[in-house]
Amino acid sequence: MEKNDLKFMLQSVLKEAIDPLYHRLEIMDQRISEMDKRMEKRFSQIDEQLLHIDERFSQIDERFSQIDERFLQIDERFSQLDEHLLQMDDRLTNLENKVDMIHQQTAYNTEQGAVVLDLSTRVSDIETEIRIIKKAIS
Fold it and tell me: How far apart are the two ends of the chain, measured CA to CA in Å?
């Protein structure tokens, strides 16, 4: 019977040593479970926040796309204005050339007018001389 007593005593000693360890393990398991639940809840909150942030970035990206499109429209309008200004510049250059030509023609006409006036004066003088000669002859 000593063997059974020894066995019982060993079991009793082991139970006394293991029971507090087992109890501590249960408490640690509960705490780990609670921490796991809190972490799961916090990760869910973080996931929601990240989804909200991602949604906001999508809105911002869409807004930037709209702004880019508007800048393209403005750039196209500036290109059209630039082309229109170049055409107006060409037209103004042509107009300036025509005005210069008119000035040159006016100067030439003024010169020719002076020549015609001089010729007219000379013709008038010659006519007067012819009249004087005719009177002298008659």
Answer: 196
Helix (H) or strand (E) holding 68: helix 2-137
pLDDT tens string 36-90 = 999 999 999 999 999 999 999 999 999 999 999 999 999 999 999 999 999 999 9
Nearest 5°: CA angle at 125, between 120 and 131? 125
Q: Encode pLDDT of 84-113 as tens digits.
A: 999 999 999 999 999 999 889 888 888 888
Q: Tokens for 126?
A: 């010659």
Q: How many CA atoms lie within 13 A of 37 on its CB side?
A: 5
Q: Is the dihedral of CA 73, 76, 77, 78 positive or negative?
A: positive
Q: Which two tokens stand for residue 92?
A: 């103004």
Task: Report the alpha-carbon distance of residue 102 to residue 108 in Å, rounded.
Answer: 10
Q: What are phi and psi of 59, to 5 degrees?
A: -65, -45
